[in-house]
Amino acid sequence: MASISLLQVSVAILGFLILHYLLFKKLYGRFRLNWPVLRMLPALLRALHRIYDYSVKILEISNLTFPFEGPQFAGMDMLVTVDPANIHHIMTSNFTNYIKGPAFQDVFDVFGDGIITTDLELWKTLRKSYQAILHRQEFQRFSMSTMTRKLKDGLVPLLDHFAEKGTTVDLQDVFGRFTFDTILILATGSDPRSLSVEMPEDEFAKALDDVGEGILYRHVKPRFLWKLQNWVGLGEEKKMTKANAIFDRVCAKYISGKREEMKRSQGVIDKSNVESEDILTSFIKLDTTKYKLLNTSDDKFLRDNILTFILAGRDTTASALSWFFWLLSENPKVVAKIRQEVINTDLSRTGNSQENLDKLVYLHGALCEALRLYPPVCFGRKSPIKSDVLPSGHKVDANSNIVICLYALGRMRAVWGEDALQFKPERWITENGGMKHEPSFKFLSFNAGPRTCLGKHIALNQMKIVAVEILQNYDIKVVEGQKIEPVLGIILSMKHGLRITVTKRCLA
């Protein structure tokens, strides 16, 4: 009887909410923001298909900070902010009080104890180990040679093929394959060769896409609901479980293969091996006396960290390049200026050294402008250890959720001026023609404070090398009539891809 009564009450409440919605919409022609019981969840779900632009409007009229109220007892309350003062406070000046927290780790559980999910001492130790690996001159050279080789042996032949055939191709898919192959080589030493004329589907890459979508839905569902779906195996959670199994199996193959390879080469001194030492090899060989919290003999530790590295390097750069080339298609004058800068720098003769890439000031500005408008990671999440008051005056309780919306941050007129929605590379250039620095709490695409992205320079170099190669040698034309919009996910990819035609330029 009790269960029947509960069902009747639930049906009555649902009926009331539906009736309330229909009447409200009929009378006022707009959707109510705050409802009884469910509070702001219906408005969020209704706007989910356009959540990015919706967040821009809400935050602009809310003085850059908006308290979202989810259903009571659902644990969905969060403070959404794009206020640079708040961001600086959270990410830098009061960094030790703001962690990812258990709720973040629960949502991102598929990545285990990698550097993006950990906090406090374990995170500090992991970051030190990554710094030691990524900042080695040998790894820097390995990174540059890997990108250049994949460009010449993979991307260029593929673009030549489509130029010769005259057929359309999804440029976002091409970039995804380029960055996937490159990051797999850097992470494991193995080349999946997904960047080829055959365009084969890779289950690991597909699993990364499914996880991105699933994690976003975990942010807009009550925890008990997605946990139940995960337990039963329904919807996005079923895809998440399947993706996790693929990660486990593929990473286990790479790890066991690497251990066997290292055993066979034990005692053999080969300088070329040091010059091409991948992340997995570096972690297995890590001196744990310096990093006592890291257990490099544990395959799960290795799995979590190579998976995190692949996620950080694959989707983010592919997303950035896709939006960059779409913006160029809308701004042909920018293309002309970049090409002239490349000619003036004479890269075809002098090569893609770091010194030469740093001379491409206008290209750098155009890339930063694309990252401002279309940040690859569209939101960040933090949780205070102790209650605090933000510079905006908002009080945050211990263990509450704070969301920083990077997409909206880059479009705030209060932050970037009245021309915030315009694509202007000149925004990043000083009066004397140098690169203009913007503080990270205003331009957050590479994170800020102690968590600033360790692979920032690798990512920028990769984008510059790809951009120079394509703009020098090809004309890219976006197919008319296609809908360009972002997909729902943790990475701001294009929902329908970027269909283009490519022709070779005459460089007489």
TrEMBL record:
It holds the Pfam family p450. It comes from the Eukaryota. The chain crosses the membrane at residues 6-24. Keywords: Heme, Iron, Membrane, Metal-binding, Monooxygenase, Oxidoreductase, Transmembrane, Transmembrane helix. The keyword Transmembrane applies. Its cofactor is heme. PANTHER family: CYTOCHROME P450. Belongs to the cytochrome P450 family. This is Alkane hydroxylase MAH1. The lineage of its organism: Eukaryota, Viridiplantae, Streptophyta, Embryophyta, Tracheophyta. The gene is LOC104730057.
